[in-house]
Amino acid sequence: MKSGKLNWDDLKAVINNNKTIKREDVRVRNGIGEDCAVINFGDYECVISTDPITGASKNLGRLAVHINCNDVASCGVEPLGILVTILAPEGTTLEEINNVMKQIDEETSKINVEILGGHTEVTRAVNQMVLSCTVLGKAIVGKAVSTKGAQIGDDLVVTKYLAIEGTNILVNDYRGLFESVLTKEEISEAENLISEISVIKEGNIAGKFGVNSMHDITEGGVLGALWEMVKASGLGFEVYEENMPVKEVTQKVCSQLKIDPLKLISSGSMLISTKDGEALVKLLMEKGINAKIIGNITKEKGILVRKGKKEIVPPPERDELFNINL
After folding, report:
1. What start and end residues bound the annotated signal peptide (predicted)?
2. Which residue, 43, 17, 15, 44, is CA-closest to 29?
């Protein structure tokens, strides 16, 4: 198989064919688009999620903290603890491992998340460092928002800008490729996008506002996130390319590589479905968070409108990060 997530049908089969035990104290279970499990502990619930970093060579620690904490934040819950597993290839130095842990410590300190434990190992099973984290959050029972809660007629809101994580990764990993395409200011802007990939703030705001569904936009970009949200909810969507918030530097990067920013990994953006998108956008903007309504939840099918023409959005395949031919 090629690099990247399993395709939707294969992943669905792997998950659904290997779920023998179902406990009563698990309120929300894993599934397509449902990145967090929610476990009942009486008056409170534990929200838990796990993800690796495999598509970047720089900022591993920073990315790992935020992509995992973002999953928990997409439930409208504040993350409180993180477990870290580092698998490093032979030849890795102690300094390199320590640098990754220093990044993790710095980022968790910013968002008040405690490092609870984990595992560190040098192994010939990998040819580059693989970092996987599990994050836990705590919520009052029944308050955690799930991906599958979208309802027909909901406005679809996107926060910040799409593909900022992908833009940051690409410019960091292939800087020389963009020096003739981007200005020094744009390269600096792309390198600093790492500071914008947390969605904890908007997750908390939206959770308190009252929304039906949230999903952080990661591998597969906004189109992948939309597909996962509506599949979890058993519904459809209609969104408009002209409403998608994409930075100019991202457009230039994607144009140079001939990739679609709507299919590029997008940690830092939250996808939200809510009955009152205008009020939520207004609130987010007042809090300093860019937000736009990109479309609506519909009864069936996923539709993207490009230049007035409707396209059916297929199931997500590999992220554009893995489709680059240099």
Report:
1. none
2. 15
- CA 85, CA 181: separation in Å to the nearest integer? 37
Estimate the crossing angle of helix 248-257 against helix 164-173, to 10 degrees.
60
Domain extent for 33: 21-140
Of the candidates 83, 111, 140, which is a domain's last residue?
140
Unique residue bearing structure tokens 């009052």: 140
Burial class of residue 211 in the structure, from the number of CB atoms within 10 Å of its CB (0-12 exposed, 13-18 middle, 19+ buried): buried
* 288 residue type, one letter: G
**Residue 324 confidence (pLDDT) above 90:** no
* pLDDT number for residue 55: 66
CB 183: neighbour CB atoms within 10 A?
Answer: 12
Identity of the amino acid at 106: E
Q: Are 172 and 58 in contact (CB under 8 A)?
A: yes
- pLDDT confidence of residue 92: 96
Between 25-29, 116-120, 160-164, the lowest mean confidence (pLDDT) is in: 25-29
pLDDT tens across 228-253, in order? 999 989 999 999 999 999 999 999 99
Strand segments, DSSP code E, in the chain are 26-28, 37-41, 44-53, 79-88, 114-122, 130-140, 155-159, 213-216, 236-240, 270-274, 291-298, 302-306, 309-312
In angstroms, how far apart are the furthest CA atoms of the chain? 58
Distance CA 67, CA 216 (A): 8
Evaluate if pTM is beyond 0.85: yes
- State what percent of residues in the chain have pLDDT above 70: 99
Number of domains in the chain: 2
Residue 4 in domain: no
Q: Which CATH number fits the domain that encloses residue 50?
A: 3.30.1330.10
Mean pLDDT computed over 147-170:
96
